[in-house]
């Protein structure tokens, strides 16, 4: 999977960075070992889905399945 994502990685990182600058994406990254990833989005569930559908990894079929979950922080500030 890592080799498959390399051609799309620059556009994926650029897209994510733009969303960070807009205040939509808080953080994102892959788990170790790289089998899954996670994005923390500061927006509605609908916009989180739109974000995912526009991600170059999803558009390019590197990510074929994703789920959106609402998360309520118990401690800390986002």
Describe the structure.
- This protein has 78 residues and is an alpha+beta fold.
- 40% of the residues lie in helices and 14% in strands.
- The protein contains 4 helices and 2 strands.
- The protein has helices at residues 2-5, 9-21, 45-54, 56-59, and strands spanning 25-30, 37-41.
- The protein has a two-stranded antiparallel ribbon.
- A hairpin with a 6-residue loop joins strand 1 (25-30) and strand 2.
- The longest helix has 13 residues, at 9-21.
- It is globular, with a radius of gyration of 13 Å.
- The mean pLDDT is 87.
Shape: globular
- Discrete helix count: 4
Q: How many extended strands? A: 2
> Which regions have little confidence, pLDDT < 50, spanning 5+ residues?
none
Overall radius of gyration: 13 Å
Sheet-strand content, in percent, reads 5-15%
Q: What is the overall pLDDT average?
A: 87
Name the strands of the widest sheet in spatial order: 1-2
What are the secondary-structure elements, in order, as H or E? HHEEHH
For the sheet with most strands, the description reads: 2 strands, antiparallel
Report how far apart the termini are. 31 Å
The helix content is 25-40%
Helices and strands: which structural class? alpha+beta
């Amino acid at each position: 999977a890592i080799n498959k994502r390399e051609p799309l990685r620059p556009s994926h990182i650029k897209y994510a960075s733009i969303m960070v600058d807009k205040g939509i994406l808080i953080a994102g990254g892959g788990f170790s070992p790289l089998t899954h990833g996670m994005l923390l989005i500061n927006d509605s569930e609908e916009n989180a889905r739109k974000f995912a559908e526009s991600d170059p990894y999803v558009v390019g079929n590197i990510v074929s399945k994703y789920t959106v979950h609402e998360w309520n922080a118990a401690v800390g500030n986002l």
